[in-house]
Amino acid sequence: MYQLIATDLDGTLLSPDHTVAPYTADTLRQLENRGLHFVIATGRHYCDVRGIRDVLGIRAYLITSNGARVHDPDNQQIHAENLEPHLVRALCQPEYSHGTSLSLYLDQAWLIGAPYERMLEYHQDSGFAYEVADLPNYHGEDVAKILYVASHDHLLRLEDKLREQYDDELYITFSALDCLEVMAPTVSKGHALTVVMGELGVPASACIAFGDNLNDFEMLETAGHPFLMGNANPKLIAQLPQVPVIQPNTEAGVAQHLRTLFGL
């Protein structure tokens, strides 16, 4: 019945310290030995997630930058969507970035406007790190994602401003309370998941998906068997009232639920 497992990382598959638990890695490896396919779907950068996949020890497809990039298990890029350069240039100006930590995700680089050591805590397994750059003067080419990090209240005001001025030209979502993410308007984890299902020839009815935050909404709607984490954003739970809620990531909820589903 089940052929494909799609999962978010932070708040979902990963432990609260943003690392891979051995119990989780062992669960996924056992299922891969049974012939299951995997998709890691996250707002994180491809170079970062590639390292996390290595720690997991599975041959997973990678949906990164919330669907702006898709790579196969052999690291071949099979899907890419960039923001329009003129929008990147506009959104890197202080009018929008003031009061935030601003980052740009490119194919092979993570550019940040100023050093922000706390961001590196999320990349312990991969070792991926940012490069400081003059973002207000960046040319805007080849950008998969813009990331603003600030307090939730500040980002809510920024979200309103972006939607008022650019709503039809951008996909805007939260990956965490302090992370507002901006991509091209046709980008989402759900659309990227359809790309992977097409590559594998797997129907949505054979796909399981796990998520915890607003950027997981489209993926959970796309999969035939979606599950919400016990620690999921209340707004996401309200948007998907029919989706079952499982144990939180503090209890390795994804691994526990998969072991139950597959009788491990």
UniProtKB/TrEMBL annotation:
The keyword Iron does not apply. It comes from the Bacteria. Its cofactor is Mg(2+). Keywords: Hydrolase, Magnesium, Metal-binding. GO terms for molecular function: metal ion binding; phosphatase activity. It holds the Pfam family Hydrolase_3. The keyword tRNA processing does not apply. InterPro entries: Cof, HAD-like_sf, HAD-SF_hydro_IIB, HAD_sf. PANTHER family: PTHR47267, PYRIDOXAL PHOSPHATE PHOSPHATASE YIGL (PTHR47267:SF4). Belongs to the HAD-like hydrolase superfamily. Cof family. NCBIfam families: Cof-subfamily (TIGR00099), HAD-SF-IIB (TIGR01484). This is Cof-type HAD-IIB family hydrolase. It comes from Chitiniphilus eburneus.
